[in-house]
Design goal:
Keywords: Acute phase, Calcium, Disulfide bond, Metal-binding, Secreted, Signal. By secondary structure, this protein is mostly beta strands. It contains two helices and 16 strands. The protein has one domain: Jelly Rolls (Sandwich). Bound molecules: 2-acetamido-2-deoxy-beta-D-glucopyranose and calcium ion.
Amino acid sequence: MGQLQLWLAVLAVLSGIVAQEDLYRKVFVFRKDPSNAYVVLRAKLEQPLQNFTVCLRSYTDLTRPYSLFSYATKAQDNEILLLKPKPGEYRLYVGGKFVTFRVPEGGRDWEHVCASWESATGIAEFWLNGKPWPRKGLQRGYTVGVEAAVLLGQEQDAFGGGFDVYNSFSGELADVYLWDVGLSPDKMRAAYQSLRLPPAVLAWKSLSYEVKGDVVVKPRLREVLGP
Ligand SMILES: *[C@@H]1O[C@H](CO)[C@@H](O)[C@H](O)[C@H]1NC(C)=O
Ligand SMILES: [Ca+2]
C-alpha cells in the first residue's frame, strides 16, 4: 500500500466511513423486505480477473428473486452476479451472461454457496453446502473488469446503483469471500466448513465495508453448517 493510500485508509476509518472488521461468528442482518439497504465491499483488486471464486452463506425465507453478490463495472452491471431467481435455482452471471444451477428447494436452513469461473476453459463451478454441482460453460476467454462496485443486498443495473427493491436481499448473510483464483476442491470444502482459507481479495475475517441503510451486524444465533 502506498503512503497516500495508507493515509486515505486511516482517514476513512477515523471518519467512520469505512469499517474494517473481523466478522468471524457475526452476520449482516438485512432487516427489511423489500429493502433499499445494501453493504458496499472494498476489494483489493489490482488486475483484471481471469479466474475467481466467490463464496457466501445466506439464511432467508424469501421466495421472490434476490441478489446475493453483485459486482458491477462501468461497462457491465452483471460483471459478476450471484442471484437466486426463485427457490430451487441459483444463477451465476459473468460479463452479462449466465448459467443456472438447479438445487433442492431450501430446507429453511443456512445455505453455503461457492461459485467459481475460469476464463481459459470457460468452466463455471457451483458448490452448495460443500458439494459440487455439474459444471457448466460460460464466457470462455472473457476477462472480468477490475474497477468494480461490489455490493451485498442489492442487484446493480448501473455502476453502484440502479436497484430494484424486489431483487433486494432480506435475511442474514455471512462468510463472504472473493478470490482471484479458482479454489481447489479441498478449499471449497474448507470454505463450507469455515476452516482456514487462502488469502482473499475480500475476506470475511478482515472485511472493509460500508453499510448503507437498514443493515445490522449481529452475532450468530447458532452454528451455521447445513445438512
Ligand atoms: C487462471 O487459472 C488457470 C487454470 O488454473 C491458470 O492456468 C492461469 O494461470 C490463471 N490465471 C491467472 C491470471 O491467475
Ligand atoms: Ca443487473
